[in-house]
Amino acid sequence: MTGLSSELLSLAAVAVLVFFNGFFVAAEFALVSVRRTRIDELAAQESPPPKWSSG
């Protein structure tokens, strides 16, 4: 592999990792910021309720 293609591959890998990191940070923020009453409301509507919401 030439030096330029190796650098482009490394840059692409970093871009993909940054994207996935942003996705997981957004998912964590959404789970942390949701109100407990909203979780209970959603659990009451679904059949069966999600197991992660019964904390």
UniProtKB/TrEMBL annotation:
Keywords from the named record: Membrane, Transmembrane, Transmembrane helix
One Pfam family per UniProt: CNNM
Domain CNNM transmembrane: 3-55
GO cellular component term, pick one: membrane
Superkingdom of source: Bacteria
Transmembrane segments: 12-32
InterPro entries xref list: CNNM, UPF0053_domain
Name this polypeptide is given: CNNM domain-containing protein
Organism: Singulisphaera sp. Ch08
Lineage: Bacteria, Pseudomonadati, Planctomycetota, Planctomycetia, Isosphaerales
